[in-house]
Design brief:
Length: 366
């Protein structure tokens, strides 16, 4: 493979990084990116086409996205002054750091978790601190609290349900971290709808909490719409570092309409939860595989290294050869032997089960 030469003008810490990219080999069954596995229903698509016809593409979008923020506020029983919208929730990971962490600051997150926290902190010149989760992927209360007290992070990120482990974190430990933290704690509930839990009520109790949410996991990953919820004074600060017109006019129109007709999307979420139950049960019975419990729309599973059919990375490749794309974590200190499968439509999950069954069996014979 040809290596890209290092740009002589690059900042050393950027030169040492690699770009965020998912391995994208064109596969028929794509279960690698934690999207909702179903397209929006036809009825909703028709309504969206109507709505999009009226979008004035020659104008800049509403810079405050007022209508969309009002709709989000109604939907979540909040005030619109508690909400900011962004170009995916990814954008807010950077913006929260820009607003609350004076470089060089310390930024804390457990590991494994969503890699963008570490990436954004590094890009902005901070020190990213990582505290390993326990063996069963829970927060290590003692070590997390020790890191909070010792390093006084400006911002801490907790994803619950956590990506890529899938589990919800223990509430008592999360509360202790929030209470002891001198800085902001971002509670990222990207997968909240699949875990039937929200941390929004915590905003009344703790002034240092921000809740991060996204439409990407409920059928609108293509629109890139994330939103940040917090106390009015904290939201006011983040708004100062938000780029102008960060949410385009089409996204504002589409997301607003989908929220108004959410009853058409909700059954798809329920279908994913039911499929998750079935797939978890099946994975749990496969020899050489340990499936971890999930409250999200994906399942992490470990491929036991002593299995004759190879390691997780080889299995990932072999599944791709069979047109099934999962997420692998080659080189990751804690996840190199794991794969993550997003819950898809029943026929996609069946295709995954079939491919995995064949591969596991061929290993046992070979
Ligand atoms: N947080 C977590 C935990 C995620 O897994 C993801 C997406 N994979 C995001 C945030 C970003 O989501 P988006 O930018 O699509 O809103």
């Amino acid at each position: 493979m040809q290596r890209t030469p290092i740009c002589r003008y690059a900042r050393p810490r950027i030169a040492a990084m690699s770009a965020y990219s998912l391995k994208q080999r064109p596969c028929r069954v794509r279960l690698n990116a934690n999207e909702l596995g179903y397209p929006l229903p036809e009825e909703l698509r028709e309504l969206l086409m109507e709505r999009l016809r009226r979008v004035e593409l020659h104008r800049y979008p509403d810079p405050e996205a007022s209508e969309l923020r009002e709709t989000l506020a109604r939907f979540h029983d909040l005030e619109s002054s508690n909400i900011l919208v962004g170009n995916g929730s990814d954008e807010f990971i950077t913006l929260v750091l820009a607003a609350f962490a004076e470089p060089p600051a310390r930024v804390l997150a457990p590991i494994p978790t969503f890699s963008v926290y570490h990436m954004a902190a590094t890009i902005l010149g901070h020190e990213a601190l990582e505290v390993p989760l326990t063996k069963d992927w829970h927060l290590d209360a003692e070590r997390m609290l020790d890191a909070v007290r010792r390093y006084r992070p400006a911002v801490t990120f907790l994803s619950s349900p956590n990506n890529p482990t899938g589990n919800l974190f223990d509430e008592a430990v999360m509360r202790a971290i929030v209470t002891e933290s001198p800085g902001i704690v971002v509670l990222d509930e990207a997968y909240g709808v699949y875990g039937a839990r929200t941390y929004l009520p915590w905003l009344d109790e703790y002034p240092n909490v921000l809740v991060l949410k996204t439409m990407s996991k409920v059928g609108l990953a293509g629109t890139r719409l994330g939103f940040l919820v917090g106390r009015r004074e904290a939201i006011h600060e983040v708004n100062k570092v938000r780029p102008p017109y960060n949410v385009n006019a089409m996204t504002q129109a589409v997301v607003g309409l989908v929220l108004e007709r959410y009853e058409l999307v909700a059954p798809l979420i329920a279908a994913v939860i039911e499929e998750r139950r079935r797939l978890s049960a099946w994975l749990g019975k496969q020899p050489g595989v340990t499936a971890f419990p999930s409250d999200a729309n994906f399942i992490l599973f470990r491929v036991h290294p002593d299995a004759t059919w190879g390691d997780a990375v080889r299995l990932h490749e072999a599944l791709m050869d069979r047109e099934v794309l999962l997420r692998a974590f080659p080189g990751h200190p804690l996840l190199h032997d794991c794969l993550r499968v997003t819950i898809g439509q029943p026929q996609e999950n069946a295709a995954f089960r079939e491919a995995l069954t064949v591969l596991l069996a061929s290993g046992r014979e070979g």
